[in-house]
Amino acid sequence: MTTTAAQAMVAATARLRAAGVDDPARDARVLLAHAARIDASRVTLIAPEELSHEIAERYEQLIALRAIRVPVSHLIGERDFYGRRFKVSADVLDPRPETETLIEAALSEPFERLLDLGVGSGCILVTLLAEQPGAIGLGVDLSEAACLQASANAVLHRVEARADIRCSDWFDQVEGQFDLIVSNPPYIALEEMDGLAAEVREHEPQMALTDGADGLSAYRHICEGVRPYLAQAGRLAVEIGPTQGNAVADMMRAAGLREVTILQDLDGRDRVVLARNP
Predict the structure, then answer these.
(1) What residues are paired with 258 via a beta bridge?
(2) Domain ranges in the chain?
(3) DSSP letters along 110-135, please?
(4) What is the distance between the alpha carbons of residues 196 and 72, in angstroms, rounded to a whole number?
(5) What is the CATH number of domain 79-276?
(6) Which helix (H) or strand (E) element contains residue 39?
(7) I need a labelling partner for 16 at 20 to 30 A (CA). Which of 30, 42, 63, 238 fits?
C-alpha cells in the first residue's frame, strides 16, 4: 500500500504526540524533509506525492528514534545558531537560542584575541570569529570528541585559519592574554538533572550539562584562575542558569573584576554575567 507524504506526516505527528514530543508537527515535517533530502520549505510541494520505499523507510527509522526522544539535531546532524548552521552530535551540547545573548554581549565591543573555555560544538568561538573577521581565537575543551566537532565547524564556516582548538582542562593548556574570554560551562546542579527533558538528560553529554555538584563549580574555577589570562580592560562573559546571576557576579567581584553586569535573555531571565579586568 502506497502512502503520500501528507499521510505519512499525519501519522508521524500522531505518533510523536503520543510519545510526548513537544512540537510533533514541526518535527515530523523536518524529519520528512531530511528523509527526502529536500529543504524543509519544500515539504508542502511533495505532500500529495507518494513516498518511495527508500524515503518511507528512512522516515520510519527517524520517527522511531524521535519517539524515544533522540533530539532532532542528532538525527539530522545539525542545528541553527545565530544565522549559521552547525554540525552537532551526541558528543556536544546542542547550540541553544539563549546562548545568543552571550554572543550579543561579546560583540558589544571589538576584540582581537578570544578564548572560549569549554568550546563544545564551537558555536560560540566560530560565531564570534565569523562576526569579527580580524580576531583570532583559542577554544579549549576536556573532551577530545568536542574538539574534533569544533574543528569541523571552524572549517565549515571558514575560520579555521584563525581558530586554535586544544584539549585542555580549563586553563591547563592556555597561554597568553585575551581581550575577551567567554564560557558556557556546565551549570545544572546534580539535583536538577532529573527534571530535564529526556532529549537533554539522556542524549546530551553529562559533562557539558552538570558539574555533578551545585552547578557553580565551573564558575569558581574560572573566576579563581582568569585574571592572569585577561588583558588590561579585557572582558569575561559567561552564560548562567536563570537563578545563578548574583552568585556568579559575587565570584567575579571577589576575583577583582569590575563593572560586573547581569544581562537578561529575550525571555527576561538572567542569562549572562559580564565583567572587566581593571
Answers:
(1) 276
(2) 5-68, 79-276
(3) --SEEEEES-TTSHHHHHHHHHSTT-
(4) 17
(5) 3.40.50.150
(6) none
(7) 42
